[in-house]
Amino acid sequence: MKSHQDLTVYQKSIDLVVITYQITKSFPPEEKFGITSQIRRSAVSIPSNIAEGAARQSKKDFSRFLYISLGSLAELETQLEISVRLEYLKKDNLLNEEIIYIRRMLLKLIKNLKE
């Protein structure tokens, strides 16, 4: 691996950030500092932690940051579900599939780092 940018999981998580920004544009203005901000921050945290972990000098550190990315992904998934229940969003299976795909890639990368 030359850089974190070479990782498919990083690239896919950047795509997820773009999607989350697009879907939250239509959220009510009063949620600008509420759920909209939370969703965007948790989405941005995913690739940011992948990048930071990849820049570390050890597999153990990288793995720790990948776990943080997993936590942010779970947080994003929860916030999207809340947004569906608040009727700010429609249930989007494509978005859920992306989250599942990224989770699988993160878990596989963590497993490979441990081996």
Protein described:
76% of the residues lie in helices and 0% in strands. With 115 residues, the chain is an all-alpha fold. The longest helix has 27 residues, at 59-85. The chain has four helices and no strands. The mean pLDDT is 94. Helix 2 runs antiparallel to helix 3. It is elongated, with a radius of gyration of 15 Å.
Give a short overview.
The protein is mainly alpha-helical.
Task: Chart the SSEs and their pairings.
Blueprint: H1 8-24, H2 35-55, H3 59-85, H4 93-114
Helix pairs in contact: 1-2, 1-4, 2-3, 3-4
Number of helices: 4
Report the average pLDDT across residues: 94
**Radius of gyration of CA atoms, rounded to a whole number:** 15 Å
Annotation, overall tally of beta strands: 0
How would you describe the shape? elongated
Order of helices and strands: HHHH
Our estimate of the beta-strand percent is: under 5%
Low-confidence stretches: none
Largest sheet: none
Distance between the termini: 16 Å
- Give me the secondary-structure category: mainly alpha
Helix fraction bin: over 70%
Please give a handful of descriptors for the protein shown:
115 residues, mainly alpha, 4 helices, 0% strand, elongated
